[in-house]
Amino acid sequence: MRNIVILGSTGSIGRQTLDVCRLHPDELNVVGLSCHSNVALMDEQADGFGVSKKAVGADEALALIDDDVDVVVNALVGAAGLRASLTALDAGKVLALANKESLVVGGDLIMPKATEPGRLMPIDSEHGAIYQCLVGEDAKEVKKLWVTASGGPFRGKTKEELANVKASDALAHPTWNMGRKITIDSSTLMNKGLEVIEAHHLFNMPYEDIEVLVQPQSAIHSMVEFVDGSVKAHLGATDMRIPIQYALSWPERWPSPAAEVDFRELGSLDLGSPDASTFRCLDLAYEAGRQGGTLPCAMNAANEVAVAAFLEDECGFLDIADCVEHVMDAHDVQPVESLEQLEEVDRRSREAAGRFLSSKR
Ligand code: MG
Question: What is the pLDDT of residues 89-139, one digit of tens each?
């Protein structure tokens, strides 16, 4: 039996994590829940699971990471999740990480604390897939990671067509059931850019050996290519509860939370390259990752501000990449030293992004 705390229990990942817990009551014992603002739903969840420890807000959630906790599921949104990730690892807990910004912003601080196998389990379909393809393999024999992308709801659109799209158009995402912020990130390909940086840290791969592959049906969840030319792919239902459950069951596998896929009915699989010239955030993220240091932190902060503005119809779709590029260009890159330094970079970059977006209105 593992005692787990879910930070961000009312969001998409949090709710699906509770689904997994409901299916495996002999394996998983929920002992704490936190939410951003939906207290009514968190209270309902707490009643259902008999949980007494609750918190509202990312800072208050840190108090839930106490002695009787084995696993911390970090499903907080944005860079605010980094402190919780570091706190969980410092306290010796298993970190089941859905907050990809923790690695994007603070991978240099996190990875040295997570060298032991199973300490850091990714809750992201792509990284869960790569993790599984690598089980039993020698890292020296890995040639390339293929991170798959659905291409997002605007795949195939031109820049002219994208100039006037609204957040509501993006929120009709074709495949995965996700929260609002990540759905917009998926539509700009920034989500894939964040995932490339995430993969770089998690699997210690150089950026030139991480490729993005568009696979609109999302049946292939990612692939690993080995030096002998063999390629392992992870396939399955497009159901986030599968990677969530694997992160919690490792090194075991438990009965599936998802409907079975009948591959005979899947028809064909389309594969292709991302349209990086239209969706510029992907290359901006690669550039931030390659330069490293504090640049991914600045990039991420600018993106969070621009996405929040886009969700409120306060900026255009193409302004998101322009804002990220502007903040990156102005940023003085330093090696990562501390959480406090990153929080300061995050704060300044948010201000710079806000000024940029105001100047466009
Ligand atoms: Mg993903």
Answer: 999 999 999 999 999 999 999 999 999 999 999 999 999 999 999 999 999
97 CA from centroid of ligand 1 (Å): 12
Query: CB-based contacts of 138: which residues, under 8 Å, 6+ apart?
Result: none
Instruction: Cis check for the bond before 251: say yes or no (omega within 30 of 0).
Output: yes
> N- to C-terminal Cα distance for the chain?
54
To the question of pTM greater than 0.85 for the whole model, the response is: yes
DSSP, residue by residue, 260-276: PP-GGGS-----B---T
Alpha-carbon gap, residue 8 to 56, rounded angstroms: 9
The pLDDT tens digits of the residues spanning 38-93 come to 999 999 999 999 999 999 999 999 999 999 999 999 999 888 899 999 999 999 99
Q: How far is the CA of 28 from the centre of ligand 1 (A)?
A: 24
- Distance from the alpha carbon of residue 238 to the mean position of ligand 1, in angstroms: 11
Sheet (strand 231-235) strand order: 210-214, 142-149, 220-226, 231-235
Q: How far is the CA of 98 from the centre of ligand 1 (A)?
A: 9
The CA distance from 275 to 269, in Å, is: 18
